[in-house]
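This week, look over our next protein:
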Amino acid sequence: MSWDVIVVGGGPAGLLAAGRAAQLGARTLLLEKMEKPGRKLRITGKGRCNLTNMKPLEEHLQEIQPEPRFLRQAYGAFFAQDLVDLLAGVGLETTVERGARVFPTSGKAWDAAEALVAWARQQGTELRCQSPVEALLLDGDPIRGVRAEGRELEAAAVILATGGLSYPLTGSTGDGYGFARSAGHTITPLRPSLVALETRPAWPAAQGQGLRNIELSLWIEGRKQATEFGEATFTEKGLDGPTVLRVSRRVVDALAAGCRVELSLDLKPALDPDKLDARLLREISERKGQKLGDLLRGFLPPPLVLPFAQALGLGPSAPLDRITAPLRKRLVHLLKELRFEAKGHGSWERAVVTAGGVSLKEIHPATLASRKVAGLFFAGELLDLDANTGGYNLQIAFSTGWLAGEAAAKAALTSRGA
């Protein structure tokens, strides 16, 4: 055959798969439909690229759904320190930041993508860009290769690493799901994850205003389901930011199921209601002759002053002597439990990752080989695996890419007696 291994998709999973296969001596071709590999990686993390997380294995697994145990063998083959060492070997320095998150020291996602491309090529990978795959060659078992570039490209093993549906302008347009279906695989429902939420009410006047050190709680059908501490940001249509992203997968699923979903923000988690009330009472006493807006600016960012005053049924210019005990209690409640109804979520263009994908029941976890078609392997976001923010999604891509590349190379080399 022309090739031992063909990898479809030049993202992080595809680059690791191709590089590992070539490293083991397999004649490896990587096909990428965009003009550059790693397009999505180059904009990840607002251009900074949270590559992985240095927390222990068990903590990684706690951040992954729906079946974290599926990844044990992939993580055993290639994990966070292995990635850091690989990147260091091609000259990319990394830095560990708050929360054990790993970033390129340069602060540039572009550098990470270029380092991975360089590594894959150093191992012997032939990389062809602007080469979209049209179909798998499935007329028999095992797989024969792919149809691309207007012809049949034969290989003993094919790895699908085409990504999901998030950020489609980077090339993630779901091609791999069609290829997987053509091979008889089941695709679990696809939906956006790590995505901004649309709320009622929305506060467009506060768009872009960030909140730090707040506590966000998720309520589904009146029951508290999760709590996150950290940052949130107001958008034109609702809420975004790390705490929101971390609960977004559950919100998307709950809304799809027709459930009532609410988010509550505790803007002063360090103060219990009694202490907060006492502080308000003291501030009001000390600010005689001042206005409500003056008081609120001591507790809130400026863009939130007007919405809070309106929620109290007053304007920012209302004199403080109009703040009765019931209004003060209402203000305490707003500061401690500011409620929003979740009524929607952002589109695929804004989602960080895809939830759902190729069913894990149909893939061997020790090799990432298809249980349906011999010679077919899967890696990355195409799988029914996703994780919270913090570098965990990229580590899934790197680890599954490495394992798939290793297994595919061994299978291909065995088939040709090498």
User: Anything to note?
Assistant: The chain has a mean pLDDT of 96. The CA atoms of residues 46 and 89 lie 25 Å apart.
